[in-house]
Amino acid sequence: MKDERSSGLNNMPRPSPDDIVAFLAVMQTGSTRAAADVLGLSQPTVSRRIDALEHALGLTLFERSPRGFDPTSVARKLSGEAAQVKRALEMFDSTATQIRKSVTSKVIRVTSTVEVFERILSPLLSRYGETAPEVVFETVLTNQPLDLVAGEADIAFRHGDKGNEADLTYHHLGDVSWAIYSSQDRLKDVSLPMDLNDLHDKDCVLFEHSVGPQLVRAWAEDLFAKSRIVLRCDTLQGVLSAVCNGVGFAPLPCSVARGIPELVKCLAPDNGVAVPFWIVYPTRGNPRYLVEFIEMAQNKATAVMNMLETETGNQSH
């Protein structure tokens, strides 16, 4: 025969988590009005939740008085468990939020130099954004390499020698031609192309020792070994500005210098240097949307590199 008392208990409504949170707020503040302010609810709503919880439990939690809500001994016994329920709800909500962000968020963090961003990366991001509007790009524009394995960025566009990191993939996008340039004002009485010996005792502008592709730094330091180094810059834009203003001779990427009328290539073509250009990314663990962007970037960036180098090869100076 079924126990009617057990059946009656099973038929009682279960306490609502919101009612338990309201109960804890009243315990802590001493009134439904103060609890309503803490919870951002109306006072009648908090009162209804207390009534609903008492009904669900079959217990009296507060003695109502003109002074407010006085907790009963039962309420004091339940307050610890109520606090645990509140903490569990907060943890549940926090975890769910993190999971939701990880599932729905599609962020790609890309690092490059300012010049690469302007000439190659910016058009790529715009084009990809048209086909995948849910993807958000974050860019870190710097001359220093970021640690992709440590998660400082998802993708890097880099100049120079290929790295040997086991966890990174390097995809060659092409080579960037560099040459020695000067302003036209400095070359009024100079025959072009200049001989390497003509650089002796000339003023030159170079990169800081830790800035720019190492291949370029080593090549330029050798070329200008007998020249006067009048300025070192920590950005390509700084070197470019100095050369345009007649400060001295300097190494510049041909694709950049080509579009500036006041700049002139000084040496014969075989006295330049070609610097490899790479897209770099972690070998494993990339989400599908990142893989899709990498595939698109490899194709589009390679095409842009080929176009820039072809135009550079066709230039007259």
Give structural attributes:
317 residues; alpha/beta; two-stranded antiparallel ribbon; 10 helices; 11 strands; 22% strand
Descriptive account of the structure:
This protein is an alpha/beta fold and about 325 residues long. About 45% of the residues lie in helices and about 20% in strands. It has 10 helices and 11 strands. The strands form 3 sheets. Strands 3, 4, 5, 6, 9, 10 and 11 form a 7-stranded mixed sheet that branches. Strand 7, helix 7 and strand 8 form a beta-alpha-beta unit. The radius of gyration is 34 Å and the shape is elongated. The N terminus is likely disordered.
N- to C-terminal distance? 104 Å
Percent range for β-strand residues: 15-25%
Major sheet: 7 strands, mixed
Order of helices and strands: HHHHEEHEHEEEEHEHEHEEH
Query: How many extended strands?
Result: 11
Task: Write down the overall mean pLDDT.
Answer: 86
Shape: elongated
User: Taking Cα atoms only, what radius of gyration do you get, to the nearest Å?
Assistant: 34 Å
* Residues in helices, as a percent range: 40-55%
Question: Helix/strand/pairing class, anyone?
Answer: alpha/beta
SS summary, helix count: 10
Stretches where pLDDT falls below 50 for ≥5 residues?
Answer: 1-7
